[in-house]
Structures are given as C-alpha cells and as structure tokens.
Specification:
The complex is a heterodimer of chains A (250) and B (603).
Chain A lengths: L12 E8 L7 E2 L2 E2 H20 E2 L2 E2 L3 E8 L3 E3 L5 E2 H7 L12 H15 L10 E6 L9 H9 L1 E2 L2 E2 L1 E7 L26 H8 L6 H9 L11 E4 L2 H11 L7
Parallel strand pairs in A: 1-6, 1-9, 9-12, 12-13
Antiparallel strand pairs in A: 2-3, 4-5, 6-7, 6-8, 10-11
Helix pairs in contact in A: 1-2, 1-7, 3-4
Chain B lengths: L2 E4 L6 E7 L3 E8 L2 H6 L5 E7 L3 E9 L6 H25 L4 H22 L8 H13 L2 E10 L4 E7 L3 E6 L2 E2 L1 H5 L9 E3 L3 E3 L3 E6 L5 E5 L17 H12 L7 E8 L17 E5 L4 E5 L8 E8 L2 E7 L3 E5 L8 E9 L3 E2 L6 E6 L5 E2 L61 H18 L9 H8 L2 H37 L1 H6 L18 H4 L41 H4 L20 H4 L2
Antiparallel strand pairs in B: 1-4, 2-3, 3-14, 4-5, 5-6, 6-7, 6-10, 7-12, 8-9, 8-13, 10-11, 13-14, 15-16, 16-19, 17-18, 17-20, 20-21, 20-22, 22-23
Helix pairs in contact in B: 2-3, 2-7, 3-9, 7-8
Classes of the chains: A alpha/beta (250), B alpha+beta (603).
Chain lengths: 250, 603
C-alpha cells in the first residue's frame, strides 16, 4: 500500500518547504502581514513535529526538513537538510519579504535535491514538497518541473506536492471553520486560472495523511487535493499541518 | 514474605528464569534502539512479587508522546502492584468488587502522581522549542498503559486488569484460549492511565479460573512481532533473545518487556528443539467423508503426534506414517486446526509444526476459514498534539535578508532499587513514601497469617469495611490536606516574593528568560544552544504581575509597572537582547552583586 511507511528515526520523512517571500507577502491577511501569518504557522508546525518526535527529553529525528525561501532568487534557509532535532535547537526561522516570484527556480532546486536524496530513502516515507505562495509566478512556468517532481518516487510512493495559495478570493465562499471543511477536490469551484493551475500541480491527499489530519481535528474528505486556500490564518495553518501529516509511530 | 523483582529502566535485562516448585516464570526487558543510542531510560516497566503460592505483576508501558512516560510507567507499576498484592486475594474471592475498587484506586493514584510530575525538572540545557513542548506535555500528564495481575498458583485463578494494548495471552496446553477468555477488541492503545486525570478510557478487569491453564504471557507492544509467534511452541530462551534483538533492528523499534508464567510440568525453555514437520496439507473426500492430513516426513522419525485443535479443545493422535485419515463426522466443527510433531530416538521430539487451519465446517464443501477478525482494534490516540492555534511562546524576531543566503534487571529480593525515579530525591514525594509504607504495612498484616492477626488488627480493620466508601473518605481527607498545604505554600511564596519585589525589584525584572531558542538563521553555522539561542524576556507564563517586560526600553525598576504580555522585537532590538547568554539575566548590570537563582532561570 502506498504512503504507509511510518516516519521513524531510521526511516525519517523528508519535508521540503518552498516559501514565497515576494513583495506581496507584506500585504495584510486578517490584519497581519502574510509573511507573519506564515511564520506563525511554520512555528506551530515545527513545534508539533517536535511534539510528535519527543520521547522523554529526546527528540527522535523522525522528520528531515529542507526549507527554501524564494523571490527573485532562491534562499536555502537551513543550509541543506536538517533533522527535526537540529531544527528545534536552531529555533524558528525568520523571513522577510523581497521582490518577485521566481517559482520555477525554487522547484528546480527541489528537483535537484530530490535527485540527490531519493536513492538513499527507499525505505522511508515518500518525500513531501510544501509550496506556499501568494501569487502567480513571474518567471518561467513551474508546472513542467513540478510534474517531473511528482513523477519521482520511492518504495512508499510518488513525491507529494502540496500547495498553499494565500489569496482572499481563491474560493467563491468563505471557510469560517476549517475543521469541518472537506478540502478541495475535482468539483470545487476555484477563482482564477492560477488556482486551477495550482490544483493540477497538487497531489491527492493519501489516506494515511487524511487520518492524521482527522486526529488533528480536521474533517478533510477522501480524494481531496493537497491544496489549501490561504484565505485566513487558520487555513494557512491547516496547510502546514497537512505538510507534517506523515504517519509516525506512536 | 514475597520476593520482589523490578527491572531497571536504564539498562537491558536479558531473559531470566525463576523456577519454583509448582511453576516457573521468565521475564526480559530491553530498550528501544533509539533509547540505547541516546542512553535514555526505557519507558517500559515490569515489577513482580511472588512466592510459592501467589504471584503479582505489573507491566506498564509509558506513552512516549506524554510527559516522560517512564514516570507514569514506574509509578503505576509500583503502586498498582502494592495494591494488587494487598487486595488480590479478596478480588479472587469476590469479597471486594474488583472493577469498582480498582477504578477508585487508579483515579486516586493521580492525586499522588500529579505533584511528582509537576515537580519534575526539565533539564535546562534543552532547546527552547523542546522545553515549550515538554511544558505542554506536562499539562497533559505522564501516561502509561498497563497490564496487572494477581495469581493464585494452586487454584490457577487470576485477577487480571489492563488498560491499553499490552498483550495478554493464555493457553491450555496447545490451545490458545485468549480470545475465548478475554474477548476481542479489548486492547485499545487509547486506553491508559494518566498522572493528570487517572483513568483515560475503560479499565478492563477479568477473574479467570481454569485448572487446565498451562501458560500465561504478557508483553508490551514493542514485542508485537510475537503476536504471530508462540501459537503452539513455547519459545526457547535463545529464540526469545533472538526475537528481542530482531525488534531492536526494526525501524519501529520500541522498548520491549515480556513476562511469561508456566505451570509445571513445563517444556524446557532451555532446549532448542528441531523444527517440526513442514508442508502440512489436507484433502477432504466428500463422498467418503474422510479428511486426509499429510506432511513432509522427518528423517529418522519413529512416530508422529497429530494435534487436532478446535474450540472444543485438543486431542493428540499418534501415528507412524506421515499421513493420517480422520472421519469428517468425528472432527470438531468449529475453528479446526492441525499440527504435527515428530518423535525420534536420536533427536527427541521436534517442535510442533505450523498450524494447518481448516476453519469452520460449512456442510458438504467442508471447512472454511472465516474472515479474520483483528485481534486488537487500534483506536485513535487520545493524546492530541499541540493545538495549532495556541499562542506561541516562541517569540518571533524580525530579521533582515542577511539571515538567509542564496543557494549555491533483575533485582535481588530485598535489595534497594537504584536508578529509580522514585528514589531520585528530585522526584520523591513524601506522599508516595507514605503510601508505600502503608501499603506494605497492610500487606504485611494480610500476609502474616492468623497467628499475628491481633497484632495487625488495627491495620486490617479499614480493609474489612466496604472498601469503596472507606477509600473515598481516606482520599478525600488526603485531598483536603493537600489543598491546605498548597494554599499555605502559595501564601508563603507570595509573601516571599513580595518581600523580594520590594527590595529587589530590578532583579525580578531581569530573571525572566524563556529559554526559547530563537534562531537568527545564519545557515553557515551549526546550530548550538549557546551560539544561536536568544533569551527573550517575555512570553513566559511564570512572570508575575509585578514583572516589567518592556523590550523596547530599559525596564523600570519598580514593582508595580505592567507586563507586556507578548514581545515582538524589532530587528533593531535584537542586538540589545541577543548577547544575553544562557542563564544570565538580561540587564544584569543594574544589580551585578546579586547572584542568579537557578530556580528563576529554569524556565
């Protein structure tokens, strides 16, 4: 069965974050700069990872994390891949906004990283790429690269790609309570071409992830895409929770 | 007087056997691969008391996602065993309600355990993010699953209790009767005991009396690999060691603990018997009404034993051939299985073969294996991870773009425990000691026999009254006493603080580091606590209302200024705070002669 390998210290999950730090991330979301909302969500997610990995006072390195910020260039925030215990020691990263949105560049970096890493993680959970953006790309179309990434796989399954699209009007209706929202599927009406593009760039949510999400209080439906509309801080948070929903050993 | 065995959570306990006149038992424990690597404690715990007539045991498995699960497993192990030894006989007799009384006891134990958890000091050198998480876990308490029992050896009568997914398995000779005896789907990972609330979920209890029981095994989920083993053949010592070693090499390696009791006569655990016959198969001749069982012959075998096992029991048939015909009408109709072993003068008796399962009789077409029911239903864990929208105690620090860069064992009876949490002065509470002493006193009274009953009558009296009421009253009084103690302590602390604040207001201001690791994210540096940790002086719940936290300005040294509840430092503020090293108060220069209190720095 795909996506069933548990994240353990011997078979850690690799999660790659691609965070858009373009100028528009300084715009407000729910009264706060978007970048700040993202940092909050990332901080809570890292803590939750630590929560899941802690036995006694030891943090078991069940997650490996790579983190890229991108604007007109790509920035490797962690200087490579770090285990969750190393990230915990380092603390929550700090981002500030820059200029354009060169989405293709960051996916190129991720593709290269996966080419390097995948041969060594055949018994590990399938890697996950969590892409957070708030606007259309300004460089080349990233979709061909994303499709190549999605086609890469290990024994657990294909590489998963999740998209968190921070936008006020991606959905034609508000989502007042994310915990009862079923997520985006094929029938969900989306506003804007880029929203449709991001959906097609997103993987389906594996069942194991869905179960973990439900344990976190979310009612996401089967067959939902790994795509979240960042219309509120709660939905952005939900997106980051999804990114760390690799099943772990109890 | 009982002998006592308690495993040491800090090290491995290889398989040990204790041989008595009428029964033997063995036990083993090993830490998970991860715990071995980091030299941290096992969160499993096993404690046993025994003599020739009775045996009590508790196996507990600390929940790793709770607050230091080893605290709960050891606490529940020690206290529950004392309770079982004290009440076990009455539970077996039925003079005390097993379920009700044990439920009360488990819930009451939380009152004693909570102060131990609250007093437990988290190592101060840990990263701030981890400390935050551990403090969140502390609120939820330390948790453990457990299986406990009190066994009357002669009567083969057992009082069993469990919460969680410890495996309990029982045999009548070759026949495993676990499901028949305990039922299905009663082992839930979500059920556990918590130092914060007592029972989480349902307590399961069972009184079992069966003179045909031969074997009884309990093990933690780290040995789940055994679920499909031990069906017929007891595992040899060597085999058990090999399995434990095997688990430590698995990616999901967990702490493992096993306890097994066998009534005599027992098959020798020390002997490695050769494997049994292979490739058992059957043919059902519907016209003749014959079931033919056949297997691959064993070289040198003089005879074979065929075990016909079913819900009705087991029957052994001996034959000299490597096949045998049974009349279908005479075979059991429910849960039919066969196993074969060979006998030879040279090699002795082999192990029983793997089971040939025929299943249930459904008429002319013979036997069909019914859909396999899951032995253990795993419910979602009740341990919830951090609420994701909870206010973060990790302060956020703005930074410039320069923060990122472009890509390029065994205990001898009577011997005092060592390495024990409860023997750790940090974690010992007088309440715990009192309870232990009282438990042992009651147990002593109960076990002394009629000759000394008068001497211990005062101790026995409360136990003979309706246990439930008496116990509640006792705990109520203890609770009231504790409440007064806490209130008194709070007033005392307040008074001390008030005096401190009046005289040393500036010091109060400076001693509020959060130990929160806020990285300034310089990717070229390897993260170390000292190099990258910034002690931000706010967002710590222990701040008193009199503390001043105004990060953008020099704190004022008055006892009445207000606290800014959260702190978002601007980039320009960072340099003024970042240099403050760990355990060194910020703005310390104001009162250089006053030493820093470790308690205040502890976060």
């Amino acid at each position: 069965m795909s996506y069933s390998i548990l994240a353990t210290s011997q078979t850690p999950a690799l999660i790659i974050y691609a965070l858009d730090v373009s100028g528009s991330m300084s715009l407000k979301l729910d009264g706060r700069p978007r970048i700040e909302v993202v940092m909050d969500a990332l901080s809570a997610t890292l803590q939750q990872m630590v929560f899941r990995c802690t036995k006694g006072a030891q943090i078991s390195p069940r997650y490996r994390i790579a983190m890229y910020a991108y604007s007109d260039q790509v920035y490797d925030i962690l200087g490579g891949i770090m285990t969750i215990d190393q990230v915990a020691a380092l603390g929550v990263p700090v981002l500030s906004v820059m200029r354009t949105t060169a989405t293709d560049l960051v996916f190129q970096e991720i593709e290269a990283l996966l080419h390097r890493e995948l041969p060594y993680m055949q018994n590990c959970p399938a890697p996950l790429v969590c892409h957070m953006t708030d606007g259309e790309f300004t460089g080349a179309d990233p979709q061909p690269i994303v499709e190549r990434i999605k086609a890469m796989r290990n024994e657990d399954g294909n590489v998963l790609v999740e998209n968190i699209f921070i936008s006020d009007n991606i959905l034609p209706y508000p989502v007042p309570d994310p915990t009862v929202w079923p997520g985006i599927d094929d029938t969900t009406q989306l506003n804007g071409k880029y929203a449709h593009k991001l959906r097609s760039m997103s993987s389906r949510l594996p069942e194991g992830y869905r179960v973990m999400m439900s344990e976190n209080g979310y009612a996401i439906a089967p067959n939902a895409y790994m795509m979240l509309p960042g219309m509120s801080p709660e939905l952005v948070q939900m997106g980051f929770v999804m990114s760390m929903s690799t099943p772990v050993a109890q | 007087m009982y002998e006592k065995i308690t495993i040491d959570q800090t090290t491995r306990c290889p398989v040990r056997v204790v041989k008595l006149n009428t029964y033997d038992f063995r036990y083993a424990n090993d830490r998970s691969a991860e715990s071995q690597r980091s030299d941290s404690k096992s969160q499993d715990y096993l404690t046993i008391r025994y003599d020739e007539n009775y045996l009590g045991f508790v196996i507990a498995d600390g929940v790793s996602q709770s607050f230091f699960g080893e605290l709960a497993s050891q606490f529940i192990g020690d206290h529950l065993l004392s309770h079982m030894m004290e009440f076990g006989e009455r539970y077996l007799e039925g003079s005390v309600d097993f379920q009700d009384n044990l439920e009360s006891q488990l819930n009451n134990m939380a009152f004693i355990a909570t102060p131990i958890v609250n007093a437990f000091q988290i190592p101060s050198h840990l990263p701030g993010m981890l400390i935050n998480v551990l403090e969140q876990k502390r609120q939820m308490g330390s948790q453990a699953t457990f299986a406990a029992g009190f066994i009357d050896i002669a009567k083969k009568k057992m009082a069993l209790a469990w919460m969680g997914d410890e495996r309990i398995r029982i045999w009548k000779s070759l026949q495993e009767i676990t499901k028949e005896t305990l039922g299905e789907e009663t082992f839930q990972t979500a059920e556990r005991w918590s130092t914060a609330v007592g029972m989480v979920g349902k307590l399961h209890t069972k009184i079992i009396e069966d003179s045909d029981i031969t074997r009884f095994v309990v093990y933690t989920d780290g040995l789940a690999i055994l679920d499909k083993e031990m069906q017929l053949n007891p595992i040899s010592q060597e085999g058990l060691e090999a399995i434990i070693l095997q688990t430590s090499k698995m990616p999901q390696s967990d702490d493992v603990t096993l306890f097994e009791l066998v009534w005599k006569p027992v098959e020798d655990w020390d002997t490695n018997r050769p494997s049994g016959p292979e490739t058992l198969k059957h043919q059902f001749d519907t016209d003749a009404g014959i079931v033919n069982i056949e297997w691959k012959p064993i070289s040198g075998a003089s005879s074979y034993h065929i075990a016909t096992i079913s819900s009705e029991g087991q029957k052994i048939t001996e034959t000299q051939e490597n096949s045998h015909q049974f009349t279908a009408d005479e075979l059991p109709k429910e849960n039919l299985r066969f196993s074969v072993r060979a006998n030879s003068e040279a090699k002795g008796t082999t192990q029983w073969s793997n089971l040939l399962v025929l299943g249930n009789y459904v008429g002319a077409s013979g036997w069909i294996i019914p859909p396999k029911a899951e032995m253990r239903a795993i419910a979602p864990t009740l341990i919830k991870t951090l609420p994701v929208f909870r206010g973060q105690t990790v302060n956020k620090v703005d930074a410039t773009t320069s923060d990122v860069h472009p890509v390029g064992e065994e205990r001898i009876p009577g011997q005092q425990q060592t390495g024990s949490i409860l023997n750790d002065p940090q974690q010992l509470s007088s309440d715990t000691q009192y309870l232990d002493e009282k438990d042992y006193l009651h147990q002593g009274a109960y076990r002394q026999g009629s000759n000394q009953v008068d001497t211990f009558e005062w101790a026995l009296k409360p136990l003979r009254t309706p246990q439930k009421r008496k116990f509640k009253l006792e705990w109520l009084l203890i609770s009231i006493g504790l409440v007064f103690l806490v209130i008194g302590t709070v007033f005392l602390i307040k008074k001390i603080n008030k005096n401190k604040n009046l005289g040393l207001a500036a010091q109060t201001l400076t001693h509020t580091p959060t130990h929160t690791a806020i990285a300034t994210q310089t990717p070229t540096s390897i993260p170390t606590n000292t190099a990258t940790t910034t002690q931000t002086p706010t967002s710590i719940p222990t701040n008193t209302a009199t503390t001043t936290q105004t990060p953008t300005s020099t704190p004022t040294n008055t006892a009445t200024t207000t606290q800014t509840p959260t702190h978002t430092a601007t980039a320009s503020q960072i340099p003024t705070q970042t240099p403050a090293p760990t355990n060194q108060p910020i703005e310390r220069t104001e009162l250089p002669d006053i030493p820093t209190s470790p308690a205040e720095d502890g976060g």
